[in-house]
Amino acid sequence: MLDQLDHMLEQAQKALENSRDLAELDEWRVRYFGKKSELTEIFKEIGKLPGDERPLAGKRANEVKTALERAYEERVEVLKGLQRDALLQERFDVTLPGRPIDVGRLHISTQTLRNIYGIFAKMGFQVFEAPEVETELNNFELLNMPPGHPARDMWDTFYTTREGILLRSHTSPGQIRAMRKYCPNPIRVILPGKCYRYEQVSSRSDFMFYQVEGLALGRRITLADLKGSMIEFSRLMFGADREVRFRCSYFPFTEPSVEVDIDCILCGGKGCSVCKQTGWLEILGAGMVHPVVLENGGYDPGTFSGYAFGMGPERIAMLRYRINDIRYFFSNDLRFLRQF
Ligand code: FA5
Questions:
Q1: Contact by Cβ (8 Å): 232, 124
Q2: What's 202's DSSP letter?
Q3: pTM reported for the whole predicted model
């Protein structure tokens, strides 16, 4: 019987090594451990052996059983691993190169805003944020446009259903907020943010766009300071050899008011379709802060003076990168946005 057990162990181990999948392994288990297996028969026979042979045969039969059980467990793990590997190879080709991760980038308006911040930071301006939802008081009245003032028509405004509350049509109301916050100290801030206008959308005008406002207040600030900082800005933004021109203009909150042009970066001032044959491109509006506005901000116009300006970063980016339609900026077309 001992020989029979050894022989059976040897055979079972060989069969186990030859089993190729879990189904074959199951057949093996039934064959060597099942109710009708040789091992079960041997255990039955042990009971019939003479008393002195029984302990040895019983011990050996149990050893064989334990050895087979252990070998079975190990084989199960090996076959499961092989099955997993086969499945992976079927689904994934681990030799293929990885897919590059699409890296995000800054929106062209954000990039332009950051350029503007950088230039004005060099001149000592810090960023001051003001809300997009404004009061009619800040957007118009305190900027020297009382109700019914014809200049209000310069900005086609989105009003909310709440009386006296609107979406700011320019960043200038932030001037009032900055003045009221810093009064009676000198100020040098830029105020960036989105503006909204109930305007016909065209290649040059959107209903939502960014503006960057600037405000410098002090005791002896003059138009010469305004001109100096605008020339510095224009040359840092558009190139050192840019010509800058100041034209008389009108804004209710500045006196005198100007508009700032640079010589056309496309034709160099000769005249082309972009500059409408004038040789000049407008980049911003500006002026000396009106005494009424200074007073509304809490400053004494007898002691304080200052300048303010307002520019559109999208229009600036259009000039720098020769973009011919402002609608590209916020239509979320990745083919456009990925170029910057
Ligand atoms: C103003 O909004 C004045 N608040 C600017 C100002 C500030 C003057 C301080 C004096 C002192 P204007 O409406 O021209 O001005 O707008 C200023 C700039 O915003 C324009 O030069 C243009 O670059 C940009 N802009 C105006 N409307 C639009 C629009 N619909 N779409 C895109 N950009 C616009």
A1: no
A2: -
A3: 0.74
Higher pLDDT, 39 or 122: 122
**Is the shortest distance between the CB of 285 and ligand 1 below 6 Å?**
yes
Q: Are residues 192 and 82 in the same domain?
A: no
In tens, the pLDDT along 276-293 reads: 899 998 999 999 999 999
205 lies in the same domain as 85: no
The answer to whether position 103 is within a domain reads no
The mean pLDDT of 124-135, rounded to a whole number, is 98
Residue 287, number of CB atoms within 10 A of its CB: 23
Domain hosting residue 118, numbered range:
108-337
Ligand 1 centroid to Cα of residue 215, in Å, is 15
What gap in Å lies between CA 189 and CA 259, rounded to an integer?
20
- Reported as a single tens digit per residue, the pLDDT across 297-330 is 999 999 999 999 999 999 999 989 989 899 999 9
Question: 23 in a domain, yes or no?
Answer: yes
Bridge partner list, 249: 257
Q: 218: which strand partners?
A: 305
Instruction: Verify that 11 and 87 share a domain, yes or no.
Output: yes
Q: Out of 113, 156, 170, give the residue to mutate to test ligand 1, the one with the largest number of ligand atoms within 8 Å of its CB.
A: 170
- Specify whether 190 is located in the same domain as 315: yes
In the beta sheet, which residues pair with residue 134?
166
What whole-number distance in Å separates Cα of residue 55 and Cα of residue 2?
12
What confidence category does residue 244 fall into, taking pLDDT thresholds of 50, 70 and 90?
very high
Q: 97: which DSSP letter?
A: P
**Residue 99 lies inside a defined structural domain of this protein:** no
Q: Is 60 in the pocket of ligand 1 (CB under 6 A)?
A: no
Residues 330 and 265 placed together within one structural domain of the fold: yes
- Please tell me whether residues 64 and 190 are part of one structural domain: no
Beta bridge partners of 254: 251, 289
- Residue 219 is encoded by which pair of tokens? 């005791």
User: Is 259 in the same domain as 131?
Assistant: yes
Q: Which of 284, 155, 288 is nearest to 212 (CA)?
A: 284
Same domain for 66 and 119: no
Domain total for the chain?
Answer: 2
